Amino acid sequence: MKIGEAARRAGVSIDTVRFYERRGVLPPVARRPSGYRVLTDAHVERITLARKLQALGFSLDEVVDALRAHDRGGATCESERWRLETVVDRIDAKIAELRRTRHDALTALEECRAGECRLV
């Protein structure tokens, strides 16, 4: 299938498909003599998986590493669990930072209500 069809089926833009190809998310894509890419259902599935991993909080580099581990064979839930643990730890750290920031903003708001605004 052409790139537009693959992008449509994966729910991404054509530019995303091209970007994923450059970044190594996709394995090498065959080309027609005209230069047009020829993508397969496997490419669409891989794009969809990459998007799901990113939605879970994986960085693009982490997605590429996880896919390469899978491609090498032998990847199991047990051997790859650390990747999800890393994502969860990063999310927990962000939540903690947001809680601190919210607390500081609420404190500033209370001070402002009391006539001691930090903004002026």
TrEMBL record:
Example of a GO MF term: DNA-binding transcription factor activity
Superkingdom field: Bacteria
Family matches, as SUPFAM superfamilies: Putative DNA-binding domain
InterPro entries the UniProt entry points to: DNA-bd_dom_put_sf, MerR-type_HTH_dom, MerR_fam
UniProt entry keywords in alphabetical sequence: DNA-binding
Domain named HTH merR-type: residues: 1-69
Keyword Cell division set for record: no
PANTHER family recorded: HTH MERR-TYPE DOMAIN-CONTAINING PROTEIN, REDOX-CYCLING DRUG-SENSING TRANSCRIPTIONAL ACTIVATOR SOXR
UniProt-recorded name of the protein: MerR family transcriptional regulator
Organism: Halostreptopolyspora alba
